[in-house]
Structures are given as C-alpha cells and as structure tokens.
Amino acid sequence: MSALQLDQVSRLFRASAGGDMTPALRKVSFGIDQGEVVTLIGESGSGKTTLGKIILRLIPASSGTVTFEGKDISAFKGPSLREYYRHVQGVFQDPFSSYNPIYKADRVFELVRGVYFPAMGQPAWEEKIESALAAVALNPGDVLGKYPHQLSGGQQQRLLIARALLLDVKLLVADEIISMLDASTRVDILNLLVSLKRSGLAILFITHDLSLGNYVSDRTVILRHGAIVEMGDTVKVFGNPRHPYTRNLLTAVPELHKKWQPTAADAVTRPADVAGAGHAPVPATALDPPRLTEYEENHLVAEDAA
Amino acid sequence: MSVKVENLSVAYRMRAGDVCPVEGVSFTVADGEIMGLAGESGCGKSTLGNSLVFMEGRMRHLGGRVVVDGQALPVADFRAMRRYRMTKVSLVPQYAMNALNPTRRIGRLTTDLLRSHDVRESDVLEEMKRRIRLIGLDEDVLNRYSFELSGGMRQRVTIILSTLLNPSLLIADEVTSALDVSTQRAVGEMLMEFRDRGFVKSVIAITHDLSVLAQITDSIMVMYAGRLAEKASAADIVNAPLHPYTQMLLASLPEVGVRYDKVTLTGIPGRPPSLVNPPRGCRFADRCPFARAKCAEAPPFEQVQPGRQVACWKVSEGWPEGGEHERSAA
Amino acid sequence: MSALKGSAPIGTLTTGGPAPPLEAAPRRHGDLLYYALHNKKLVFGLSLELVFVLAAIFGPVISPHNMTDFFGSNQAPSAQHWLGTDNLGHDLFAEVVSGLQVSYMVGAIGALCAAFVGMALGFTAGWRGGILDEILQLITNIVVMIPALVLLIVIGAYLKTRGVLFEGVFIGLTTWPWVARAVRAQTFTLKSREFVDLARLSGRRAYSIVVRDIAPNMASYLLLVVILLFGASMLLAANFDFLGLGPTTGTSLGTIMNQSTLWSALQLNYWWWFLPPGLLLTGMVAALLIANVGLDEVFNPKLREQ
Predict the structure, then answer these.
(1) Yes or no, beta carbons of A188 and B183 under 8 Å apart
(2) Please, which of A136, B87, B97, B322 could form a disulfide with B155 given CB 3.0 to 4.6 Å?
C-alpha cells in the first residue's frame, strides 16, 4: 500500500531578480510504501533536499501533486496540517542546528506535547518518552535535562528520531542525517533505521553517499538536475546501472579496497564546471524531464543525454 | 626526510583550563609522500595539521620540534612563521572554500596574496594560469567572483592558490568533505597530480573519510583522542589494521555492495574521552574489547614491524585475538 | 582583504580552522557574567551611567532648594547655590536634577515606543515575507524619509501644550524604522534555521515560533538596539528641546540649555547655566554608548581581544 505518492512534482524558483525561472525539480514521480526504505540519491543541485521539504510541507510545489494515503497534502492547513505532521516527520542534516541552543535538548519533546498530547498526564508522558528513547537505544539518564551542546552528534540525531516516534509517524524523511556524524556512529543510526523499517515505518532516505544508500534501502531513486535518471530496486540499480550518470557516480565512489577506475573522459564525469554556483544552466523550457523507460522489472532508466 | 615532527604538543587555552588535543606526537613524511591523517571529530587531527603552519589565537605550543627540509620551523612564533607560510609549508584550512573573499575576483585575490608574500605577480601569474588549465578549468576563473563558482571549483582554486609558490609541505584539512562524489574524486586526483608534478613535495591530507585516503595516500596515520594510534602504509592500514580502534573503524564503514540483509555492520560503542581531563592510560581502553589491566598505562607509539608504528599493548606485547578480558577502570 | 588564512593579516576575522575541543559550546550564563564583569568598557559605561541615574533619583531629595523658589538672578555657583541661579533666580542645581529625571523619562518612553512598534512590524515582515513584507517596507521607508523636525514644528503649531509623554511617543514613532529593519533582517536569517523548521513540523503556530524560538535568539541583539535607542532618544529630545520644540510643561536638560541661549548666557558668560546640562547630557549618552560597545564584545566573542 502506497503511503506517499509523488506525481509530476515540479518546483521552480527565480534564480535572479527578473531572470528566468529555473527548475529545481522536474516532474518527479514515484511512491513509497509502508515498511519500505527509498533512497533518494543526488549530488548538490539535484533537488533532493527541495523534494524533502516539499514532502514535509515546508515549501510548496510549483506543480504536480503529493498524496499521502490518498489525500492531496497541499490542501492541508491548520488542524489537517497538524494531523499530517502526526504521521509524517523529518530529521535533517545538521543535528546541532535542529535544536534551539538556548533551550535544553528535550524541549523538542515538549514542543510536540503541547500540540499533540495536551491532555496527557505527566506519568503517562514520561513513560511515552522512555519507550521512544528505548526504541532509539538512548539511555534517558544520558540525554534528558541536558543542553544540545552537551550531547554528541549521534545522541542528538537519535533524540530527533525519538521525537518523531512519539507521534504516530508513518513516514520519516531523513535528509542527510548521518553525513555530519562520525564514521563510528553512522552505522548505528543506519541500523536503527533498518529496525524501524522492519516495524513498518516508511523512510525516505536522502543522501549523496551511494554506499549508505546501498546498505539500507529497498529502492533507489537517482536524481540529477531535478529529474529522475534511474530508479528501481536497489540491488538492480547498483548491480547493473544503465544510465551513464549512475555509472559515473558509482565509479567515483572511493572504496577501501579498490582504486578509482579510469573513466572514459566524457562530459558526465566532470562536475558542473560552469558559472552558476553548482547549478548547471538548464533552460527553463526544459521542464520536461527525459522519459523513463522500463529496462527490466522494477528498474527504470531515463533515455537521454540531458 | 622531508618533514619530521618530534614530540609535538599543542594546547588550547580555554576558560575551563588548558585542553591538549595534540600530545607528544612524532612522525615523519618523506619527500613525495602523501600521508593521510585520519580520525574522528575532536581527535586533534585538525589542530595538529594547523599547528604546523598557523597557530591561531588560542593555540599554544607546549613543546616539540617541526623540521622541514632539514630546517627547524619556528611554529610557536606566529610572526616568524610568516616567512615560511606558502613557500615552505602551506595550509588549506577546513571550510577554506567558503572563506574566499566574496568581494574580489579570483585574479585579484591571487595578486593580493602574492603581494603579501612579496612575490611579483607577473612571475607567477602565468604559472597560475597554466595550473588552472591543467586541472581542466577555464582561465576565465580568474575573472570570476567566488560565489560564481561551484563548491568543487572553489576548493580546487583554493588548492592552487595554496600551492602556487611550490611549498615543500601542503596540509589539506578536510578538502574533500562536503563535496559531491565526483568532485571529491577530482580534488583527490588533483592532489596526487600536483605531487606527481612536483608542485608540492609532500602532502598531509586530513580527513575522517578513510575511503578517500585509501585512494590517494601512500601512508595513513590514525589519531585518537589527541594521540597517535597507528601509522602504516595505506595498503597495510586498510587490509591489515593492527590497532583495535582502526580495526573497528574499518568494520563500521559501509561499502557499495554491502547490504544490511547480508552483512550487519557495527559501530564502536561509547564516545571518545573528553580532552579536558583525559584518562591517564590508553585513551581507547574503555571502548576496547581487548582492554586489560595493563592499559591503565599509556602505550608508547613505537615501531612494531618495519614501516608500521602502533600505540597498543595488545600489539606490542602480542596478546591473542578475541574476547573480553578483564578491563581496567580507565 | 586577503584570500586565505595562511596570509591573513593578524586580526582579520578568520573563518574555519580547527574547532577547539569543547566544540560549539554556547556561552552559558556563568560565562557571560564573567565576561561582562571583566569588560572594561561595559563596567565603565554602566558605572558612569549609574552615577547619573542616582543623581536623577536622589538629586531632588538632597537639593536644598526647590526649582520654583526665587533667589537672586544670575548668581555664580556658591555654597548656597551649587550651580548658581538662572536669570529668573531659580536654583540651577534643582533645575538640573529635575531635568535629569525628565530626560531619562523621555528617553525611556521613546525607546520603549520605538522598540515595541519596531519589533512588532519587524517580526511580522520577517516572518511572513511576501506582499506583507513589501508593504511594511514601504511604510518603513516613508517614515524614515519624513523629517522629524519639520513634522514636530508643524505639530507644534497646532498643539499648544505638549507634555513629556507626547515628546517620548513622538520620538518613538519616528525612530522605530531602525529597530524594524534590524529585527526583520535577523528574523529572516533565523527563520531559515533548522530548529524553526522543526517547530513548524511540531505543529506550532507562527506567533508561538516567533516569540519562543526566534526572539530569544536575538535577545542580545535586541538589547543592544534598545540601549542604543535609549541614548538616541535622549539626544533627540535634547535637540528638540534646545530648539524650543520641547515639552511646554516640565524642565529637561535641553530646555535649560534652550533658556540659557535665549537669555544670552553664552555672551554674558554665565557658564554655569548651559555648561552643566550640556556636559551631563554628553556624559549620559556617551556612557550608554560605551557600555553598548562593551556589551557587544561580551556577546560576540570574536570582537574580544584575547
């Protein structure tokens, strides 16, 4: 059952005053099911964070629809929006910045309590917090009553995930949540995501790191310049990449036991070496993304050279 | 030997007291060697790298020598080091790509930089253009402002600026972090190429990303909580690490092709010790599955095999693999 | 001015570099107090200001004469009349300490008024953005452009009696743009921080987010602005009073100086009439500004010399 469905979602923005509208996302369509981890892989300028924010209703889509359990999320406001947030939550890249530094870290729980559990008594609330902390393998004594700077990055992120678990969350948008963590704690958070997935949570895992995506996800969507270039079952996409961009990404990933392979010197390898601060200048008319064709079951590839 | 560091200790002056993120560090880097300096955040690797070139405000030199090309550098004296910066030792600091002055064009930044080192720009400008072309960028970059360039371009321009006067030692602090995978590769290959062409003699690449180091370095030095844990050739570190920290670190890295349903990776439980009051003995002991009573005494960083140095009792005394032993209350 | 850290002139603000081991610990209250007590400018400024405030409070009490009693005119300072008398024979010391009170009051009313209006409009414009922001900016620009002096002259033609309250409110309503702009800018910056996103994802309403999350994070900045406003109000009031546009009831330092000019105290060398109020006023405002600079250093560690 599809929890979240994106249909032709686009997002345009005006890069400079009086200039053309540049597409950050071009008619992106895919879905996420319950109990599934979908990894959204893209480099900077690919639009992946924009997509995460659209799903979280932090910014609006310029066109296209996002439906959650069959309902169009752009129609939500006030109480219906709050209800949406009961089921859909996000965790972001910089754990420290998600906390307001002047308050204690567990204020993030209090933020949720006021709106969603106004009538709950103190003992019931504390029990709820304890079980949420247990689910993310945090010891209440280690994290409650502390300020954010007293916690490690890993603890901060877990606490944010625990916050999401306090609600009845069905979809978690995880935007680069481990890129700022140390290598030794990353894997623990990844394993946590896997265990949450097994208990039925749908997760959109946004990252630029292919090995992370490969470890944890069921399906993968590769985004480039706002359009999907390849998507499908993770094993198929990583094991048999068909699109040149995917191939080049995989060749550039540094591995411990294998040196970088020399690549055919094609333009796709070179990063966007043009003025425009990382955004390749896609003309506004190119809102239409390249067409996706089915290469094999559960493996779609864009046909193009865009 | 191109670079020789002997017993270097650097402290930070803080209100709570002096914190010592670099304690008694000794190592050498040969001519033409790219050495990786790996470790997690807070382990002191950045402080170590920076202290060789630029001891800013709160950093204090507690002891030790730094010798480059047979000449001792006055690292403790900020002003005296000015002669050597950019010409003998050079630094690409963390976040350098965001520190370029946004109100000046790159070309102008270059001439400012050269003038402040009393170098006539006409001599060097041609060389700068040549190097820009070398890495596949357009000379036109010199006419652009920093915000007009992508992150990867800025990073590479910064590296060119730092190596323009052909220093003997380049210290690159997290130059590949925060970059896309393909740009990361371009920057990594650029460092290797610059070394190959002799624009720099040796490089110390500081990063937490062991996979990148495995690609570009000849040797890797692993730091933990302010002290050196292990140093060996890159191949040895990656294929046969000796220090338990290195071993566990490598075991926690997901590689492409590894999936959770086939292999479950594990992280290292616990946290590194605070450097305000660090433990007296081995600093990794409370997280180490092999710790014994002896670990209450700090292991020396010494050569255990030709070309391999480790600071670990288990390695130097040859304890067997496997299992928990009686742990010390570190 | 220079490109890279390696060649930065000493004292240039440098970014990056190794993070000190106790990473990103925000200054706690204990720290702030320590730095505050050790900052020479802050201590000096506040102490001086305190002297003036005490003079304003206790001056009238210890003054041996009342403001309204008559004595000999134009007497130089003596044991009976510490600051001499004016042309009508009023004891100047009594006048001056009374004037101190009035000057402070006008300053306070002006500052509070400007702060209130400026913050309300600044937060609204910064949080909402869009059309509302454009409109508010238009209003702000118009208010800035109106010459306050001319306005006051015009109003003065219609309002024959003006009190201290009027002057304070008038100053407040003509100086709020400075606050509004600053608050708006800061709100924009803080709005994009991730903890604000998190508050939105917790179903919090805009008002709650602005008051509880955004405003406290600019508390130090707001304090600095209010202190500056206070000083500016006092100075502005003195300007208006000196030109004869001050309150028709009540004596302030400015009105004393106004009177002294009208009666040619300068030419007649009755220095005790205009010098004390002028010096006092300069002292009051300067002390405040010095304290402000010191406070800025306390809040912003990068400005502190080591």
Answers:
(1) no
(2) B97
Interchain contact A85–C (C-beta under 8 A): yes
Determine contact, residues A37/A197, Cβ cutoff 8 Å: yes
CB distance B303 to B309 below 8 Å:
yes
Q: Which of C2, C4, C28 to mutate to test the interface with B (most CBs of B within 10 A)?
A: C4
Q: Give the Cα-Cα-Cα angle C61, C63, C68 (nearest 5 degrees).
A: 105
Backbone angles phi, psi at B14, to 5 degrees: -130, 165
Record: contact C6-B46, CB cut-off 8 A: no
Given an 8 Å threshold on Cβ–Cβ distance, is A254 in contact with B238? no
Gap between the terminal Cα atoms of chain C: 22
Q: Do B256 and A238 touch (CB under 8 A)?
A: yes
> Angle, to 10 degrees, between the axis of helix C130-145 and the axis of helix C164-191?
140
Q: What is the pTM of this model?
A: 0.80
| A304 touches A251 (CB < 8 A) | no
User: How big is the A-B interface in CB pairs under 8 Å?
Assistant: 144
What's residue C5's pLDDT? 37
- In this complex, the chains that touch B, judged by 3 or more CB pairs closer than 8 A, are A, C
Residues 6+ apart with CB under 8 A from B125: B110, B111
Nearest CA distance, B159 vs chain A (angstrom): 16
Residue B251's DSSP bridge partners are none
C34 reaches B (C-beta below 8 A): yes
User: In degrees, to the nearest 5, what angle opens at C-alpha B50 toward C-alphas B46 and B56?
Assistant: 115
- Read off the tokens for C19: 């993070």
| Residue closest to C25 by CA, chosen among B273, B224, B14 | B14
State the Cα angle at B250 between B244 and B254, rounded to 5°.
150
Confidence of residue B276 (pLDDT cuts 50, 70, 90): confident
Across the interface, whether the CB atoms of A102 and C216 are under 8 A apart is answered yes
Which of chain A's residues have a Cβ under 8 Å away from the Cβ of B257? 214, 238
What's the number of CA atoms in the CB half-sphere (13 Å) around residue A117?
18
d(CA B52, CA B34): 16
- Cα–Cα distances in angstroms (integers) from residue A280 to residues A15, A23, A224, A283, B194, in the given order: 12, 11, 10, 9, 28
pLDDT at position C21 is 37
- Please indicate whether, in this complex, the C-beta atoms of B254 and A212 are within 8 angstroms of each other: yes
Phi, psi dihedral angles at B115 (to 5 degrees) = -65, -40
Chain B (42-61) residues lying within 8 Å, Cβ to Cβ, of chain C: 42, 44, 46-47, 49-50, 53-54, 56-59
Contact C193/A97, CB-based, under 8 Å?
Answer: yes
pLDDT tens track, chain A, 306 positions: 578 999 989 998 876 666 677 888 999 999 999 999 999 998 888 889 999 999 999 999 999 999 999 899 999 988 999 999 999 999 998 888 899 988 899 899 999 998 899 999 999 999 999 999 988 888 888 889 888 888 888 889 999 999 999 998 999 999 988 887 877 788 888 889 999 999 899 999 999 888 888 888 999 999 998 899 999 999 999 989 999 999 988 888 888 888 888 765 444 434 444 333 334 445 545 678 888 888 888 898 988 754
Q: CA-to-CA distance for C250 and C164, rounded, in angstroms?
A: 7
Residues in C touching B94 (Cβ below 8 Å)? 16-18
- Return mean pLDDT, chain C: 83
Using an 8 Å Cβ cutoff, are A30 and A221 in contact?
yes
CA distance C199 to C90: 62
pLDDT of residue B122: 81
- Which residue, among C28, C193, C201, would best test binding to A if mutated, counting the most A CBs under 10 Å from its CB? C201
pLDDT digits (tens, 9 = 90+) for B303-322: 999 989 999 999 888 888 76
Identify whether the C-beta of residue C136 lies closer than 8 Å to the C-beta of residue C124. Answer: yes
